[in-house]
User: What shape does this take?
Amino acid sequence: MTIPAISIQALCKNYGPVQALKNINLKIAQGEFFGLLGPNGAGKSTLINTLAGLTRPTSGTLEVMSHNVISDYLAARAHLGVVPQEIVFDPFFSVREALVFQSGYYGLTTNDSWIDELLITLKLTEKANANMRALSGGMKRRVLIAQALVHKPPVVVLDEPTAGVDVELRKSLWRFVNALHNDGHTIVLTTHYLEEAEALCDRIAIIDHGELIALESKRELMRRGLGQKLKVSSNSPLPDVPANLQSKIVNLSSHQLELRLHREHDSVMNILDQLKAAGFQIDDLGVETDSLEDIFVQLTSEQAN
Ligand SMILES: Nc1ncnc2c1ncn2[C@@H]1O[C@H](COP(=O)(O)OP(=O)(O)O)[C@@H](O)[C@H]1O
Ligand SMILES: [Mg+2]
Assistant: This one.
């Protein structure tokens, strides 16, 4: 049996009275693309930071490639690359210096060819000698990614790498992370964008108030009734909604109709055709995919029942 990339058992972390993590149990296999989702304050960064050995757990065990994060710190750290959520950098270093310095942490004194490759892949070559201070936020984010990869770790963890970055950089980060995954790296991505987890991850955990409230494949999660909302409005009063669509109504007023659709079973085009056939004059329409918040509402209300 192969060892898991990450193994977390009975992990608890308290900050004073705040229980940031409550009995987390989680195994991530080698080669997985794993998504850790949750709203702000859920405990995602705390989990990542305990894994990276930056935060001490209150209790529980964490292992990276079977190396205990506390008792076997150096080995665990050597197998793990972490891209932190917060952009932290030494303002006196150039990009290349930052990467050389980071290599030194891992005892790598001749790492130039890999650093060059990272600079090229992350489109940082032109900025190699620029001071970190002079970089845009997006560029700094790419340097953080390069720093996390200087020692070629098999397990790469990215903590909200796309929060606040523009669409273009987000897409290029997705491509880059996908390429890492295709190269055999285990990837763990935390995000609060459902879209991102959907596009990239094979398996998803949802964490809320420090607790794992879901842990399943993307497909399974999608089957939990994840869906879309279709809004149509008309300049003229709406006719009756066809009988077979009645159960899908979320909101109905004289000029506006909002339907809740099931992502797998309902086709937007098909529903629009049915509405037109029933005499709807549609002047405006919008489709809104369920947000992570919608799923939380669904999942937490399921829990409460
Ligand atoms: N250093 C800290 N000291 C005290 N409380 C903290 C600290 N870091 C995080 N917390 C608290 O722990 C909880 C989880 O935070 P965090 O792990 O940052 O969530 P996320 O990354 O999911 O947004 C929050 O209630 C947060 O306020
Ligand atoms: Mg966070």
User: Anything to note?
Assistant: The chain has a mean pLDDT of 90. The radius of gyration is 23 Å. The chain is about 30% helix and 30% strand.
